[in-house]
Specification:
- The protein is α+β, with helices and mostly antiparallel strands.
- The chain has a single domain, classed as Alpha-Beta Plaits.
- Strands 2-3-1-4 form a four-stranded antiparallel beta sheet.
- Strand 2 and strand 3 form a beta hairpin.
- The longest helix has 11 residues.
- The protein is elongated.
């Protein structure tokens, strides 16, 4: 069984984005693993495994415009189904 079911990926476009602050917020406020928050002051790529992807989307939308959103169900994928 997979502990964190949803592979959540997106881009955040904004101004004065801080990847370290975003990374810290994730670690302090969300349960998950495999966090990747990289980019610059105007564009951040997020990759995160979680059971509550809607919370990730909600938070990220407060930082700027979010797009290229992909949420894949890794449990379904592990069973050979479309994720």
């Amino acid at each position: 069984m997979i502990e964190f079911r949803y592979d959540t990926q997106l881009l955040i476009e904004g101004h004065d984005l801080d990847e370290d602050a975003i990374n810290d917020y994730f670690l302090e406020n969300f349960k998950g693993d495999c966090l990747l928050a990289v980019g610059d002051a105007e564009l951040i790529k997020i990759h995160y495994h979680t059971n509550e992807p809607w919370k990730v989307l909600e938070y990220c939308s407060t930082l700027g415009e979010i797009y290229d959103i992909v949420i894949e169900d890794m449990d379904r994928q592990s069973r050979g189904l479309k994720g």
